[in-house]
Amino acid sequence: MKVLYALALAIGSSAFAQTITFKGCYNLFDSSNTFTFTKTGVDSFGKNIYITIPVNGDQDCGGLGVCEFKIQWNNSLSRWEFLADTGNGDFVNPYLIYYNSTGNNVVANPPANNFGTWVENTAVTTGACGGNLSAANSTMTGDVHSSFLATAESLKNAKIQLFPNPVSDFIRISGITKAEVVEIYNISGQLVRKENFKERLNVSDLSSGTFMLRIKDSDGKNYEFKFIKK
Question: Which UniProt key words apply to this protein (predicted)?
């Protein structure tokens, strides 16, 4: 089976949608094609998995073959990935087409094409997709996000306290056990700091604005909440 691949990510988000529609990479795929990803499950890190349906060789790809795609989270590299199957529908050793490690990775669904940076993997595409995703070369709608969000395991059900908030220099964190790592994200969802957990965290070097602080514990649980740097 000959399989070619492309990605299109479109602006927009829906809190209840279970599908993502994609259009783009027109040099590799017929511009009339719109691909639909369906949520097929959730991985062990709480991230949604999306696959084009069907994955049996029936997905037309502009007369060039068939297209079988997946969008999923790569936890070891801390990024979302757009993958193309090699032809068997099992996504074993797939092609990496795009990846996004800056689009607010704390949420369960992938970012839109205007949030963070979806980078074209030119080692595979040889640049045929026209560069990183943008509104000019792609669209993506459905179960994607395009703003600063804090989801996953909410602190409203935890006893963790963060004070003061707003903060000028030091944040104190209490009420959590087994904490290992602290990550701070800016309003665009970009990781600005990652370090070992301490109950007293110096944030004096951060610019003024809203940030998200994420705590990871030794059980693999994540806790996140917003704070304001004065």
Answer: Signal
Buried/exposed 62-80: b ≥16 CB within 10 Å, e otherwise: eebbbbbbbbbbbeeeebb
Per-residue tokens: 116: 């963070």
- What 3-state class would DSSP assign to 41? strand
E strand or H helix that includes residue 184: strand 179-185
Alpha carbon distance 223, 108 (integer Å): 13
Hey, what amino acid is at 90? D
| Rounded Cα gap, residues 92 and 72, in angstroms | 13
Q: What is the pLDDT of residues 6-15, one digit of tens each?
A: 333 433 333 3
Give 212-224 pLDDT, tens digit per residue. 888 888 877 777 7
Output the furthest CA–CA distance in the chain (Å, rounded): 60
